[in-house]
Amino acid sequence: MVSLKRRKREGAGEFSTASMADITFLLLLFFLVSTVIDVDTGIGLTLPEYIPPEEQELAPLSKDRLAALLINENGDVLLNGEIIAIPQIKDNLVERIKSKIDLPKNKKLVVSIKTDRKTNYNLYIQALDEVKSAYFQVREEYALNHWGKKVKDLTDEQVKELREKIPIIISIAEPEQIK
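The structure assignment produced for this chain is given below.
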């Protein structure tokens, strides 16, 4: 009778790990390159140049040029001393911005936003969005009436003229001198 004995082969249960480091490195590199990382960019505000206090000139500002928007720590929003809901800010500012379109730049509407240190940040952002939305709406209407086009379809010269005609003037701190 023939014996069916299994022969033990050398290295039968092992495999080469020499290329494992290369494969791991390539996988790591692939995931690093293909992964999208969400980066919060914050609020896009153009800040003015810093001018030392001793060199600053304080220009008086008339009450008809100022729209004072105050937000207290309780979430109450006041526009020129009257309580208002955040969605109403845009409607109230649109007419005032329109009324100042044909005036020179030093006569345009200034929207001052002032908050308390304990004001909910979300309320501040909503109010700021409503103010900007009012300016954008007036610009859109002006572009349609003046050129018959939407703002996005205007030429660079027309956009420049529009920005000069309807500048967005927002003050984060309330002016001190009011006539």
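Interim note for the steering committee: DSSP finds four helices and five strands in the chain. The beta strands are 66-71, 77-79, 82-84, 110-115, 170-171.
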